[in-house]
Structure prediction request, 214 residues.
Amino acid sequence: MIAIAKRLNRKVSAVITSMEQPLGNAIGNALEVEEAIDVLKNRGPEDITQLCIALCGMMIYMGEKASSPEEGMQKARTALEDGSALAKFRDLIEGQGGDPAIIDDPSLMPQAEFCMELKAWEDGYIEAIDAMRIGLASQHTGAGRERKDDAIDMSAGIILCKKRGDHVISGETICKIYGNDIKKVEKALEEVTNSVRISVKKPDDISLIKKIID
Prediction:
């Protein structure tokens, strides 16, 4: 992924990231909102948190609120740590007529009836998680559309409990799959199973941000 921000009197900046696996742990509408709230509470997954800080830092710099991308990133990091980012999100929800109570109680968002788990079939390291196949699996749950007139299940999706480079033991949960149609969940489980590779050797490069271009 290449995320780009631009302002006339400043250079174009880009953050080039790995797309060998999904960003963060959540795939699906309500699940991703809950994860975004966790990031704003400064307790989200490390990869998506660091990416958010990097992108926000670029935007702060492009908006001329910082003298460098690095200073912008520090401002973004501070906003997470002091709670001001979360407070602003609460304001945005209220301003659009939403219920800010979801920030403190995510169970107020749509909840799926069924959950199935993919278990590790052997000891080792997660060598790969095919992002394309995970996306298809998410679509199978009902979280995405196959055709433009398909209904979206806001509660459906996938939670990754393990990411590339993580160690697993046989029987340990790699991911959880949510949905309201058990046949769709089963189809998604099959797709997810084919997306994961386990190896005896830990992958060499598991970094998310590959390069920042000023």
